[in-house]
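2.7 Reproducibility. Because tokenized structures are sensitive to small changes in the input, we list the exact sequence used for Beta-glucosidase, including any N-terminal residues retained from the expression construct. No trimming or masking was applied before prediction.
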Amino acid sequence: MPEPLTFPPAFLWGAATSAYQIEGAVREDGRTPSIWDTFCRTPGKVNGGDTGDIAVDHYHRYRDDVALMADLGLTAYRFSVSWPRVQPTGRGPAVQRGLDFYRRLVDELLAHGIKPAVTLYHWDLPQELEDAGGWPERETAYRFAEYAAIVGEALGDRVEQWITLNEPWCSAFLGYGSGVHAPGRTDPAAALRAAHHLNLAHGLSTTALRGVMPARNSVAVSLNSSVVRTVSDAPEDLDAKRRIDNLANGIFHGPMLHGAYPETLFADTARVTDWSFVQQGDLGAIHQPLDALGLNYYTPTLVSGAENAPAGARADGHGESNHSPWPAADDVAFHQTPGDRTEMGWTIDPTGLHELIMRYSREAPGLALYITENGAAYDDKPDPDGRVHDPERIAYLHGHLSAVRQSITDGADVRGYYLWSLMDNFEWAYGYEKRFGAVYVDYATLARTPKSSARWYGEVARTGAVPSAETGGE
Ligand code: IFM
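Resulting structure tokens (single pass, no recycling of outputs):
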């Protein structure tokens, strides 16, 4: 029997969700539409015409959901606040009933000994702000800082862990580039403007949070930084890697961690934009001291230069669109990494997580690292006895947690892991078709059933050690 892998005693064992994916109650207590409510109602945008109207009804079932987490043995929970629930028009005063929901949720978590981590933005921009121009407009960054201060003031006394943005790459490049995410625009110049204004929003909101919260609280951002690999060391492939690394990673961590965009990014994208939207002082405003960095990891990215690309090689794993999410990189080819895949078609490769952690240990020395998302979608179905067995997910978690443990051994300061996701939920343009949950949700009854992976992961959380993958959580 192999030895279990033991983690540091204070390591946080969590699960993650986001507001639009689980809450439902989209018209209650003063909430107004976000860009995702609008996108879901645009024919052909979301699989099966699914919406987040009900989602998994967490807004009404949060007490049961917290009890379930406690029963499993989780010690942390990462959730997002819905901007249009708290500040419906994206400006002006807050709606108290919206804030009260999150206070109740946080109090419930604390009463169960579960540490809350709040994400301020997980993609649900108030529609009114999109109507005013959305993230390509500079004003949206200032509106976000105002909203951050409202939430920080309301919850800062009881929530220690704060995350400004979740995966700004998706907001900018899937939302305004390929259009597979809300608001569904397909304009590469707008996508780059959006990226800059998301960076500015991160910096301004970090400053705003610091101004209203106790100094002990920690502020971070969650990046879905890509592990970019090449099919060969040919110069055109290495150049493709450099360009995609800039667009996936450096465009965000450059200004946030180092106060500068990668120098070559400007030349790479010159045919799309002149970057004149970057104003004097912006980089200083973005480059705020952080306490931690959140890393979201699912699969590596494999690229080549166009000359090494078989016809039609465009498998970047970010959904179907005639428009690339990668501005000015139409000649870069994306390839499927060899190996087993999850239901999303994403190759399972825990070595990528190790590589990512070690890179950011170097890129962000002194910052605590958290894996703020990692997980897998599978086509889970209940057995006739009502149980849901998901050995593939256990194997996935085992592999990735082993990679985290290895990174700690190799010197990385990783303090916690949040499994994506606590329960099955609305998987954006895929609707409810893809199940990422450790807990199975029957969408007809909304009943929750922990899958075997939830029991397995709960055991990990309780013991602080990863057992052998053969332990099925039963
Ligand atoms: O469901 C999403 C989540 O909202 C953001 N990160 C990736 C997950 C899986 O696609």
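The mean pLDDT is 96.
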